[in-house]
Design goal:
about 20% strand; five-stranded antiparallel beta sheet; single chain; 14 helices; alpha+beta; six-stranded mixed beta sheet
């Protein structure tokens, strides 16, 4: 079949690869010039060094991201070269906090908690007991419970130095609002999935070079098309004759047998609503219901403040570790800081990450400069660029109704917001994309395909 994939983020490219492997002819259409969606490099300015491109946000992967790692290897990216692997560490300036050893689960978590620096015996025991309770309960809870509900009774230091940073980094939603069920699923699949699953994987390349550009090259080398800089204006359905015949689709007038929407949810909703307009009421109703659910999602922002440490010497290392947790508060907005010099970028270049960001850019930059001076002993850091991704992730709240992957026969959606067990992560995106590519209807081209039935998550 001829398949259009609208969107060349991580989900869309994963869908395109899966569709190509299934024998379909694929065309990928992407609005932006840079590939990668919400995990991409920024286009360098005039005279900028393209080898040190900044990203639209500082991302990390973890060892449990099996589908991301599989797709990297498939298109010729060596994860051991492209990513810095290190045991999970939520350590603060000065060395306090939690650090996992390189050991199989659950011993890595048990030892990391038991040996956490700066925590009292009572605090370590409380966290071990609560973790044991979660594990004995199968990492399940009431679907309406928040992360704060799960952690009721834990000492304040544990909430501040472990639960809060872990929750906001994984779900980009404050503990009082975040889904306890999704949080427990993340803990299960990252901390207890297998040796190395909890490892942090920090990109040594910009995010477009990390995988999307190689994925596009893989597709083009096999005769498929990838078109950056092309925004799709209209999606139309062409109803086939005969009760058993499936519809075909037109994307800006071009005919396709199937379409995968790999755009942000609001753009997908716009295209689906367009397609529904020409349909009879009974056929339009499911499309309109899907679009309404996609539009109802609430989103939260992530800000990344790139800065230059003025006191950086010749050494690549400015901080004692590639990533540090920071003490977050009203006058200290960043939860994490990354030493990009250790990851192959310019010496002294830092990335301060502010999850669930609300506020003004200028005030944020001033506060980050003060936070760097107080917590990192780095006075007078110079701001290089601040990137605010306003719709970085959906708000991962309890009992959230997310839109499904199947919209109509031959029309699928994929992305980190589509129904699934994970929050908005790169792994959730590529799992969704691979599932969509594999779930495309099979059969003769031009409307003779039958609907995919029994699709489930994960693939």
């Amino acid at each position: 079949m001829r398949v259009a994939v609208i969107g060349a983020g991580w989900a869309g490219l994963a869908a395109a690869i899966a569709a190509a492997q299934a024998g379909h002819t694929v065309s990928v259409l992407e609005t932006a010039r840079m590939l990668g969606g919400r995990a991409r490099a920024l286009a360098p300015g005039a005279g900028a060094d393209a080898s040190t491109r900044l990203d639209n946000g500082q991302h990390i992967l973890i060892g449990a991201y099996a589908e991301c790692l599989r797709l990297m290897r498939l298109v010729g990216i060596d994860p051991d070269e492209a990513l810095l692997r290190m045991p999970l560490a939520l350590t603060f300036p000065g060395g306090s906090g939690l650090r996992f050893p390189d050991a199989p689960p659950p011993w890595d978590a048990l030892w990391g908690i038991a040996s956490a620096r700066g925590w009292s015996v009572r605090e370590r025991t409380a966290l071990l007991a609560r973790a044991a309770r979660w594990r004995l309960g199968g990492f399940r809870c009431d679907p309406h419970a928040t992360v704060a509900d799960l952690c009721t009774g834990l000492p304040e230091r544990l909430l501040r130095e472990f639960i809060d940073p872990l929750c906001v980094s994984a779900l980009n939603t404050p503990c009082a609002e975040a889904s306890g069920a999704v949080f427990l699923r993340v803990l299960r699949d990252s901390l207890f999935s297998g040796r190395g699953g909890s490892n942090l994987l920090l990109p040594r390349r910009d995010l477009s070079a990390l995988w999307p550009e190689a994925a596009a090259a893989w597709l083009r080398a096999r005769g498929h098309a990838v078109h950056p800089g092309r925004r799709v204006q209209r999606l139309e359905t062409v109803m086939a004759r005969g009760a058993q015949a499936a519809p075909s689709w037109r994307v800006d007038g071009d005919a396709f047998d199937a379409v995968v929407l790999a755009t942000p949810s609001t753009e997908a909703a716009r295209l689906v609503e367009d397609a529904a307009q020409a349909l009879p009421a009974t056929a339009a109703s499911p499309l309109q219901a899907w679009a309404a659910r996609a539009r109802a999602l609430r989103f939260t922002a992530i800000a990344t403040v790139y800065a230059q440490a003025l006191s950086a010497g010749s050494s690549a290392a400015t901080l004692p570790a590639p990533m540090l947790a920071l003490r977050n508060g009203p006058d200290a907005p960043a939860q994490f800081v990354f030493d990009r010099g250790r990851l192959g970028s310019g010496v002294g270049q830092l990335a301060f990450v502010v999850s669930a960001f609300e506020g003004e850019r200028a005030a944020l930059e001033d506060a980050v400069v003060r936070q760097a001076a107080r917590q990192l002993d780095l006075p007078g850091v110079r701001i290089l660029q601040t990137v605010v991704e306003k719709r970085a992730t959906f708000a991962c709240v309890p009992a959230l109704a997310r839109p499904g992957a199947t919209i109509a026969t031959g029309l699928l959606a994929c992305g980190d917001y589509v129904e699934g067990p994970y929050p908005a992560t790169l792994e959730g995106a590529v799992l969704s994309g691979t599932a969509a590519g594999r779930a495309l209807p099979r059969g003769q081209a031009h409307g003779a395909a039958t609907p995919a039935e029994g699709w489930c998550w994960p693939p």
